[in-house]
Specification:
Length: 344
């Protein structure tokens, strides 16, 4: 008699926090459930999409559920503007307009809502992008966590600057515009009362002016990505996957603030997987790398720009390796799930 193993059943599967973390579980949710339901075909997963029929117009949407609502360096209102402006910028686009939708829990103090909206409005004005439409819904106590915000943005691409996660090429330099780990550790420390927020603040800020400085380099800029959920590790893994290349970065070249390193050591976190909201990673051709670095350093948002690695001439497609401080190499994996929930 032959005994066969029954096929596994998945009727009891549920959504986990990790499905929203930007790592492997997110990719599985997209590939197995969301994209098939929406008739989404294969292709790179970009921060924003070209509008069908409008060659230079780009659209992006995002929802913000950060807890707490206010943290050193920002709040949910400014974060919502910056996040969507930056998603447009990563496709080489200048923001033209935003929509804002609010889901407010009954009982939220009006003073807090007023403060969030004031910050949101100021962030939009400072970014030079109008809020042109929106919606407000109020739900009962316990049906949401105080306040959620959805923003959608439309932008127009800069001339010949058409970056894509699928355009990394062997020999490209990997550039980083500033230090990593500030946003995620600040939000976590504030929420949990760890005390690190006295030494650090979120890096949340708009990056479209930084991308504008890169625009004259045009086709020499192959990829732009802001390493938000999943941090630098997720961003690099997504790019190597979509471009079918291998990347190596230098641990000594990645700027990690001391307070971030201390917080990560205490909590057992890797700074490479901690979310950022005010830096970007760029892949530039070998010939254009120095020009790209100079352009990034010419604006405040990129003053600390550094070269952290390169796309290898050969190697397993989709692999990211880190050359450590002692000269060894380790593979930088795509984060599995949610290490720092509710940080954006």
């Amino acid at each position: 008699m032959t005994i066969q193993c029954p096929s596994p059943h998945h009727d009891d599967e549920v959504v986990l926090l990790g499905h929203g973390a930007g790592g492997r579980l997110t990719a599985e949710l997209l590939d197995r459930l969301i994209l098939p339901a929406l008739d989404g075909g294969p292709g790179p997963m970009e921060d924003a999409a070209l509008l069908p029929g409008y060659r230079e117009l780009v659209i992006s949407t995002d929802s913000f559920v950060v807890s707490p609502l206010f943290f050193p360096g920002g709040d949910i209102g400014s974060l919502a503007v910056h996040g969507t402006v930056n998603d447009l910028a990563m496709r080489g686009a200048w923001p033209l307009a935003l929509s804002v939708s609010l889901i407010v829990e009954e009982g939220l103090p009006l003073a807090e809502l007023r403060a969030v909206l004031s910050s949101l409005g100021k962030a939009a004005q400072d970014s030079g992008v109008p809020v042109v439409t929106g919606d407000t819904k109020v739900v009962g106590r316990g049906a949401a966590d105080r306040l959620f915000i959805n923003t959608t943005g439309v932008g127009r691409r800069h001339g010949s600057l058409h970056p894509s996660a699928a355009l990394a090429r062997p020999g490209d330099a990997v550039l980083l515009s500033g230090p990593v780990g500030l946003h995620g550790t600040t939000v976590l420390s504030t929420r949990e009362g760890l005390g690190f927020e006295g030494d650090i603040a979120s890096d949340t800020r708009p990056l479209h002016r930084l991308v504008g400085a890169l625009a004259p380099l045009g086709a020499d800029v192959h990829v732009l990505r802001d390493p938000t959920r999943g941090g630098l590790a997720a961003a690099l893994n997504e790019i190597t996957r979509d471009s079918s290349v291998a990347v190596e970065i230098e641990e000594s070249a990645v700027p990690v603030p001391g307070a971030v390193a201390s917080a990560c050591d205490l909590l057992g976190l890797d700074p490479l997987v901690v979310a950022n909201e005010g830096c970007l990673v760029a892949f530039a051709s070998a010939d254009g790398a120095e020009g790209a670095l100079s352009a990034m350093r010419s604006v405040a948002e990129g003053a600390g720009a550094v070269r952290i690695g390169e796309v290898l001439p050969d190697g397993p497609a989709g692999r990211v390796t880190l050359r450590t401080l002692v000269g060894a190499r380790r593979i930088v994996e795509m984060p599995l799930g949610e290490q720092l929930p509710r940080i954006c």
